[in-house]
Amino acid sequence: METITSHPLPFFPTLLPDESLHSLISRFHRLSGNPRERQTLQDVFGTHALVATASLPSHLPNLCAALPVNAAQSLDELIDQWTLLPYFRPFLRPEQTTACLQAMTSHSAGGTKIGIGLVASRIGGRNVFRYCDQCCIEDEMRYGSPYWHRAHSLPGVLLCHLHGRLLAEVRADLVELRRHNLFLPSDSWVETASSILPMRETLCDDLFELAKASADLLAMQLPPTPRSVLRSFYREQAARQGWIDRNGRIEHAAVTHAANCFSLAQSAELDLAFCQIPDWIFRHLYKHRTTMHPLKHLVLMIMLQTSPRALQAYCENLDKSANVRILPYHGITPENELSSASCNARRQRFVEQISSIPARRAYDYMWLYKHDRQWLRETISRCAKPRATVRNKVAWHVRDREYAEQVRHHAALLYASDVRTRVSAAQLARATGRKPLIEKFSAKLPLTIQAIQALEETVDAYQCRRLQAIAKASRAKGEPLVRWRLLRTAGLTCPLAPQVEKLLAALLQGR
Ligand SMILES: [Zn+2]
């Protein structure tokens, strides 16, 4: 049975710092004297069919209307201070934020988690009832009762962001049994059903950083940040870590190495299981369309040694500079970026950059190519750094003389020592160790080519040289010169070339 509360409640407790909505309603329940929780839920939300543990609860206008005059809050204030939307909002698209707000003001926020990708992320499965012993003691001293803190309930938060102590967690099965009940950390069953979370000491430093960053993000109440700005922020930080080279290319090996060495990759915590495979980091650094869970953003910030506050400062600086947001990297361009101020700023930066780097490597090249191509062409032809000319860089005449000398030297050696191989042009070029270069740039090496052509041995000349060498060796051994043996040793078959035949006849006659 659902009714809209028409009359404000006679009283309502004040929200304590970082208190969760469930905690606040639980405290109200204690003070109200209602015998059953469903009556309290009916009083506050106008319905008892509601789980007050939800991070993004529905029926909020009813809650607003039920607040007494002295505790009145606007709906926006209530959402910022009583729900976990500020934790998700910076990483949502504006339309997703609008859908969340609509769901929270309606009678069902069930589809919200699917709409903003929380279900797909498989993060946040752990029950949210965690508390810090030290916080409980201090809360009791200051406010008279321990209460549930929003920051302790965030996924991946296993340490207190204030005290660095491991949180105690209430047994999940008991929480499930009592999901329609309203309870506080001081309840006797909660104390007996809780245990300190086991954690390896090596993980504590990074987990503490994660807890502090999560609490900060929740408290800062940032607006939705455009993905292109998030990406350029991460890329700037990544470049500082050596993950991106000076040309803007991502060093995959460096990213993978950092991800493997990161302590939280060793964590057995289910919500942090994504750290074990580094793909999600690349999705942050490249253009992507998916909504990523805030925990993935926060873990990346810790890896990059930055924080939500640095992101806030980055966004503020972007807004200040020329009152336009200029993306330092190629990305989806919102319509409002097509303003003339933005275009002029890009033009100016492009002109500055192309004096030192090639135009195509300038940050704004692609944007200008898409939106301002005529100006781009004219500017490149007018201002671009002239291409370094390769002409005259090589002293070809010096090389030519050097290679020609090498050819002559090697030819003399080959003629003197090797009768088994013909001294061909290829053999002479190969002997210099520069055969491919001589073949490719033959036109620039006239002396070398002349030397090769002059010293190359013809087939007839080689056969003659070989016969002379064999005859000389036979004489030295005192063997008689016989035609068939000379031919067989020289590997020659008839008919012989006239020049060779003439030499053979002379050798046989003993001349
Ligand atoms: Zn604490």
UniProtKB/TrEMBL annotation:
Highest taxon above the source species: Bacteria
Domain (Transposon Tn7 transposition protein TnsD C-terminal): residue spans on this chain: 355-452
One Pfam family of this chain: TnsD
Domain TniQ: 10-167
Protein name, entry field: Transposon Tn7 transposition protein TnsD C-termianl domain-containing protein
